[in-house]
Amino acid sequence: MFKVVLIKGDGIGPEIADAVVEIFDAAKVPVTWIEKDAGLSVIDKYPTGIPDDTLDAIQKYKVALKGPTTTPVGKGHKSVNVTLRTSLELYANVRPAKSLPGVHTRFDNVDLIIVRENIEDTYSGIEHIQTPQVAQGLKLITRPGSIRIAKYAFEMAKLYGRKKVTAVHKANIHKMTDGLFLECFYEVAKDYPEIKSSDLIVDNTCMQLVTSPERFDVLVLPNLYGDIVSDLSAGLVGGLGVAPGGNIGDNSAIFEAVHGSAPDIAGKGIANPTALLLSSFQLLQHIGLHETKQRIENALIETLKDGIKTADLGGKANTAEFTQAIIERLEPPAADEMKEPRPLHIKSELLPVFKEKHEDCHGVDVFIESPSGIPEPPKKVDHLELTMISNRGTKVYPGAPPNIWLVDHHRCRYVAKDENGNYLRISDEEIFHLLRELYVHKFEWVHIEKLRMFDGELGYTKAQGE
Ligand code: NAI
User: Fold this and answer.
1) Ligand 1 center to 232 CA (angstroms)
2) CA–CA separation, 275 and 32 (whole Å)
3) Distance between CA atoms of 114 and 94, rounded to whole angstroms?
4) Among 85, 231, 265, 269, which is least packed by CB within 10 angstroms?
5) pLDDT in tens, the chain (466 residues)
6) What's the CA-to-centroid distance between 260 and ligand 1, angstroms?
7) CA dihedral of residues 51, 55, 58, 59 (deg, nearest 10)
8) How far is the CA of 231 from the centre of ligand 1 (A)?
9) Secondary structure of the chain: what % helix, strand, coil (to 5)?
10) Could you give the C-alpha distances from 223 to 67, 78, 436, in angstroms and in order?
């Protein structure tokens, strides 16, 4: 027997969770449910909405099925999901989008899986107010994080018999960050020669998804693009009522529908359990019960083909009738169905992947607040020479500044080179001296970035016009 934590959640959560439990019972799935609380019922005692023993149970049993939880509006209430994701390091958000019979959409042949990196990117939440006119958010893409998500996508593709994995990115613009994501993707792809690997720019991906989604198989994306593209894909196959998901880490995994607790229909017995049932299919695949998953999926498909649907999909069945219809269409398990589970094991010995420490520094970008126009800081301090000033990424010095809007935030690049044009290594002392000179001359610096070498070049993206 597999032990699986069950969190029924709030609103329609208990109604749809009970439906899934009933279907699993009828299908004789070898699962014992360990029921735990989270959400509104415990919010008074646990501001995160998650009691310690719920978290302990997920860590102990490693797999959970979760109904939606309500996030109370107001200060101090974190979302249960965000807390679970970060405290359990659930780094992969996996969202299949598959056309279902009887769910009318523009396409009837979509069958793709979105694998979204779930922790990094702009979601690290590292943001700062720089000047009265400028706010900054850091997009952090890491080598270990990118390797790990690519590896997950390929391992999953291999186990599920998928043919192609596509990395989605914007490396033509985000050369360093998305460039690193892409580099890691192709590094990992080398270990999976039997699976086709390709990459596509995110805007083009969106266009192709809404014109010919059948072209796609598995897509792997950094966090922000993954967030958007996974909702787009859910829309392609019928939206919230049929959108499942899983948050997966090295040590534990939580499967849940994409939709929320639907307070407007809670308690009426009309909620659609399909999305949570589809999430439970992901769970079954995760623990290796692929044939069991297929058998229940067949019963779901037959139910929908027979026109039995809940109201949100244009049908007349209530939750209980829909559940019963699936149960009636279940085939009995084959004798050897559950003999050899084939779970998805990700080998995490790859982590952490640290390359050698960066010791070189050949320059520095100093960001200066200047409300009165382009600043004129010292042109040379020790070895450091002012080579460029940009405003919102457009070069405004040297040369005639282009006719653009200026904000009060200027990037002043200081680089150290010898007379032959070779980069010179600079010390922190030299940077401190530069900052002191700026201070003495009344330039308001707001932050600095050291310039490192990257592939034989300084590791920064150039300003437009440079
Ligand atoms: P929602 O997804 O709960 O509801 C949006 C609309 O879709 C409603 O009209 C609802 O009746 C309908 N709907 C959703 N699921 C359905 C189902 N299975 N069957 C039939 N109709 C369904 O989104 P909403 O109203 O914005 O959020 C309600 C609460 O859920 C909020 O507190 C929110 O924070 C929380 N939430 C929780 C999530 C989770 O725990 N994973 C995810 C999203 C929202």
Assistant:
1) 17
2) 21
3) 6
4) 269
5) 899 999 999 999 999 999 999 999 999 999 999 999 999 889 888 888 899 999 999 999 999 999 999 987 765 667 788 889 888 999 999 999 999 998 989 998 999 999 999 999 998 888 999 999 999 999 999 999 999 999 999 999 999 999 999 999 999 999 999 999 999 999 999 999 999 999 999 999 999 999 999 999 999 999 999 999 999 999 999 988 899 999 999 899 999 999 999 999 999 999 999 999 999 999 999 999 999 999 999 999 999 999 999 999 999 999 999 999 999 999 998 888 877 888 887 765 555 555 566 668 899 999 999 999 999 999 999 999 999 999 999 999 999 888 888 999 999 999 999 999 888 999 999 999 999 999 999 999 999 999 987 767 777 777 777 7
6) 3
7) -150
8) 14
9) 35, 25, 40
10) 23, 19, 39
> Ligand 1 pocket: which residues have CB below 6 Å?
12, 16, 68-71, 81, 240-241, 256, 259-265, 271-272, 275, 312
CA nearest ligand 1 atom 42, residue: 260
Nearest residue by C-alpha to atom 27 in ligand 1: 260
Centre of ligand 1 to C-alpha 77, Å, is: 17
CA of 72, closest atom in ligand 1: 32
CA of 266 to the centre of ligand 1 (A): 10
Domains belonging to the chain, first-starting first, are 2-350 (3.40.718.10), 359-458 (3.30.70.1570)
